[in-house]
Amino acid sequence: MVDATSETAALKEEIFGPELPIVRVADYEEALAITNARPDGLSAYLWTQDPSVYMDAIQRMETGTIFLNSGITGCVQGYHNGHKLSGVGGEDGTHGIEGYLQNRTVYQKY
Description:
By secondary structure, this protein is an alpha+beta fold. It has one domain (9-100): 3-Layer(aba) Sandwich (Aldehyde Dehydrogenase, Chain A, domain 2), CATH 3.40.309. Helices cover 26% and strands 15% of the residues. It has helices at residues 9-12, 28-37, 51-60, 93-97, and strands at 40-41, 43-46, 65-68, 80-81, 83-84, 90-91. The strands form 3 sheets. A two-stranded antiparallel ribbon has the order 1-5. Helix 3 links the parallel strand 2 (43-46) and strand 3 (65-68). The longest helix is centred in the first third of the chain and has 10 residues, at 28-37. The chain is elongated and about 70 Å long.
């Protein structure tokens, strides 16, 4: 979908499916504003060769996962989570298993 706008469903709702809205932006700041205006924040994708841009994006994008210069390439040992309305908690990796564990503390006097 080329020339998507803020009224396009894929820009207002979290859609799980093969849909790629293309939004024309004037610059990086506008793209970041559109990304962070979403009520959800599961994943974002950024293509750039400029380290200062992707380091800034990592700090400022309000999403749980950021794919740099690639499509979906998650790893089972990585942690996958969402931000905002995309949920709390996550899955995969060491941190993901913590939600399935019940910790216990034991104090023993010698």
